[in-house]
Give the backbone structure.
Amino acid sequence: MKLKRRAMVLQGGGPTRVINASLAGIIKTSKSKNIQLFGSYHGIECILSQLQNSVFDLSNIPDSKIDEISKSPGAALGSTRKKPSKKECQRIVHSLIERKIDCLFYIGGNDTALSLSLMDSYAKSISAPIIFIHVPKTVDNDLIMNDHTPGYGSAAKYIASLIRGIDLDNSSLNGIYIAVTMGRSSGYLTAASSLARIPGLSNSGPHVICTPEMDFKEEKFLSQIERVYSNLGRAVVVVSEGISTMINGKQTELINSIQQKNGNGQTEIDNFGNVQLSGSGLLADYISNLIKNSLDISRVRADTLGYSQRCFLDVYSEVDFKEAYDVGKRAVDYFVIGGHSASLILIANRNGSYSCDFGFASLTDVAGKVKKLPKEFIFEDIYDIDDSFSYYATPLIGQPLLSVSNFLR
Amino acid sequence: MKLKRRAMVLQGGGPTRVINASLAGIIKTSKSKNIQLFGSYHGIECILSQLQNSVFDLSNIPDSKIDEISKSPGAALGSTRKKPSKKECQRIVHSLIERKIDCLFYIGGNDTALSLSLMDSYAKSISAPIIFIHVPKTVDNDLIMNDHTPGYGSAAKYIASLIRGIDLDNSSLNGIYIAVTMGRSSGYLTAASSLARIPGLSNSGPHVICTPEMDFKEEKFLSQIERVYSNLGRAVVVVSEGISTMINGKQTELINSIQQKNGNGQTEIDNFGNVQLSGSGLLADYISNLIKNSLDISRVRADTLGYSQRCFLDVYSEVDFKEAYDVGKRAVDYFVIGGHSASLILIANRNGSYSCDFGFASLTDVAGKVKKLPKEFIFEDIYDIDDSFSYYATPLIGQPLLSVSNFLR
């Protein structure tokens, strides 16, 4: 009798709204292909710490439980930010050999692909026949080779939906509203706010959108806000947490330049002079004060949209959910037909109706690299996103946003 | 032929997710009762500024448009934070007399009730037969005489839903997560986060809840977080923007004491003498740093939940929506049967299945007063909300939250 093949699945990096759909795709497909599937907690952390019971069999989870998990935010197996050293990658490979694992599925972003490529190259060097498959996810949508990544469509929908509501709230009481979105190095999440606009309604917001790919200049930014405000008495402004500015010929994150102005050198500090960046209101408060101090506008409000962008319970794109499930399923199919170590990639077709197919790239192609928002989506003269972005992103968010109106616009 | 009765409707204060359902209730019922209904922009602002076209007929809006507006966030007529002086109230009354308005419906919170009571008392003093009806709304749920207020159920649902997703995200990567909610003087919104907990799952968050009614003591707060963290390796903490602490024998908002310590915070005082809380990350950053500096925990993240609490497109309670519509309808019915100036109040019945009825209080009973979270919902020894709160609040959020699970808890 042929031995059952054995595989393991891990989750890494920041969770997305649909990361567990990929997990469900892997669990269910493994079951149907008679693969004994194991999981471990918090990515590579528990394997490295060699805790007891850190590896467990996922083959016999009832379908109803898998379905519930597939629709739950967060990483159901736990996640990790840990980047393993070469030595740690070697230890992981030996742990997999000991456990007779034939294939490792690791759901994650470009850091995860990097970890896998290190493990793969070590395994090859000792002729260990383990296949390493990167299953892509990231709300940032910044994996190269991919049209888009699972997790992005749902986060984009959340942001667009939130900003459409905010735009109505802002038109009720006027003034300036600023939202700071996730997306440190890539502007896709920030750009998604443009989907909040109501086609044909020229005064619907957001009115100013600034991504990390644009050169943030205070004067240009303020004069655009002032223009909108003098027309409408209000403005909705969306900026990325990673907006950057040219300092001494070098594009520098604004947050760093704020810290330098505050006199604290290289360390990341917040309102209180303490080290902090993520989950902090520093940038939002800075921009809010910039507007208050420079323009004659009294009502200025800023929100940092925060972690709900990647885990909000009630909003996900059903297109994103299906693709996230499918990418998990395809990873298992690929292993079964004898594929080599690879990163799964998403290939979209927008001629006629939208469809998505899957392909494979080498791990090193995707590892550690960042995809930026292409120039075609960005304006030169103003902080805004071109309408062509909507053609790209609308299919990814699935069902359209609720249509809304009021008596004011 | 009897002259058509004429009424006007305005919206005031912070919008809610369902404030336009009340407007729709007033518009549709006025139509069916043959009342000529007018609206004006931004509460009392446009009437006072005597702009042209600031008052317009709402009698002939198509039902399909009213339905779309009823489901839209924001105040469809525009809102205002303006608190009119006695003199301005007199001017408004004279403007209503000029326009032959028999009844003013003003949708708003306790400040709106106060404005109405001033107008009513002036109108009475000059024997102007105008009826002033306060139609309640507020996400804060802080109107006295009311079991709850339209707008609260939807905001409560948004917060509970958001925190249930956050709790899974937090369990994926561990560490401390802090959410700062709206609700400056009343803890109802903060308490709503307790509805995120999964019954029977003792380690589901939030694990620490602090409302303005509790005395915030750093040591007590930190030791509770440390206890949770040492058990679970993580904690989800929810605090109100208005948490307060005892300073020199006086309960003082923590944000005030931070701003005094900090020196560089820009303090904005609103029309009602309140320090601006929402739209700033100050409190969240302060608490985040307090935890980092006092406990040996590296991953601490804080979000200020922001304006989406009152205007998020995709989440509303269908119970709240219906009650908001009904309160508008009842206001018109009450005018038609010859009621006097009054504030509509919501009376709930929780014996057996939940139901809600409506009653009337005098404007001065509701005006300017604040309902606090009752002691029965609050613990003495720890920062948490009693389970009995769930009996109170669960019917208000309508359909239950999505049920979720993972492998970690």
About this structure: Chain B touches chain A through 73 residues (CB under 8 Å). Confidence is low (pLDDT under 50) at residues 270-274 of chain B. The radius of gyration of chain B is 22 Å. DSSP finds 14 helices and 13 strands in chain B.
